Amino acid sequence: MFEAERCQECGECFAQCQYADFTKDEAIHEIQALKRGENAAILRQCITCMACNEYCPTGANPYDLILQLHEEKQIHFVEPGVAEFIEETLTSVPNEIIPGDPDKPALNLCVMGHAYPRNMTQSKLFQGLTLVSGSDYFSRAVFLHTGMETKVRTYAGHYVENLAKLGKQEIIFMHDDCYTMVVRKAPEYGIPVPFRAIHIIEYMVNYLKAQPQSVIKLNRKVAYQRPCISRYTPEKEPYVDALFEIIGVDRVARKYDRKNALCCAFGLRETDPERGSQILKKNLDDARTHGAEAMIFLCPGCYWLTSEACEEYGLAAIFITDLCRMALGELPFSSRPWTAG
Length: 341
Prior knowledge:
By secondary structure, the protein is α/β, with parallel strands linked by helices. The chain folds into 3 domains: 4-72, no CATH class; 80-199, Rossmann fold (3-Layer(aba) Sandwich), CATH 3.40.50; 204-339, 3-Layer(aba) Sandwich (Rossmann fold). The chain contains 14 helices and 9 strands. It has helices at 12-15, 24-35, 42-45, 51-55, 62-72, 80-90, 149-164, 176-188, 200-210, 237-247, 266-271, 273-289, 300-312, 320-327; strands at residues 96-98, 106-108, 130-133, 170-173, 196-199, 220-225, 249-251, 294-297, 316-319. The chain has a 5-stranded mixed β-sheet with strand order 1-3-2-4-5. Strands 7-6-8-9 form a 4-stranded parallel β-sheet, with helices on both faces. Helix 8 links the parallel strand 4 (170-173) and strand 5. Helix 9 (200-210) packs parallel to helix 10 (237-247). It is globular, with a radius of gyration of 20 Å. It starts with 11 loop residues before the first helix and ends in a 14-residue tail after the last helix.
């Protein structure tokens, strides 16, 4: 949530925005206007990448103020009808629980089965885990992109309750959205979380560290497509670097990574195709120019909707679990390797 008492009106949040063009003075005016509840220009220029939360040096969370005003003023990044279609589609996914070892964590796959790599959970990475999926385990955090936070807030308690009913002390989250809900948004909403949330990257780092003899160094150069929602949990970034080091891939130093990461722009490619395509081109050009052989994805939505564009640029599109499977000798190093052969 927006922490007004932390905001120093320094303007860094919007002066650093990669999708708007504000001078420092203009950026200061924008945040002041937002705090007054006015119809500031940033409300319509924002592409909902959430980066301003990370740019803010005092942790005031200016994006959350944008989100609040988007809803109050009914400024939607996608048309309400499209948002309703997304919700109806994703909330109709049947629930499924595949029991595993009672002493091992559960793995929440939410509703993104259509976007994950084929046969992903057959990997030894996930052996013995209880696998849960379906609409009861879908966080609705996708609506943090649409100016409809009420949908997220309203469902948060039900989401945490459904997960708690699994009776697990630890739950691993495959989707960054779902992880963000339990470690950031639910606590903000005053909802207690009675289990420890483990991010999929943390889990894979610990898995590979426990059996170094099984790891085959890949010796590849890769770019990383950092999800927008990761702006809420930047503290997990060292786990990404640790994972790449363990499996022997070099995360190329490039302009549009880490704090300067670009949105994959798949939503913008629908609402403003020219602008969205320009952002995507900048991102992929940057990766290729700096020697990346592949783009590594953490967000299943980014992976599902951007893989083809990566391949057109000569970049292999690889979901992060597949990258680990390659290091375990389960898959060849290739774009969407489950299609090989």
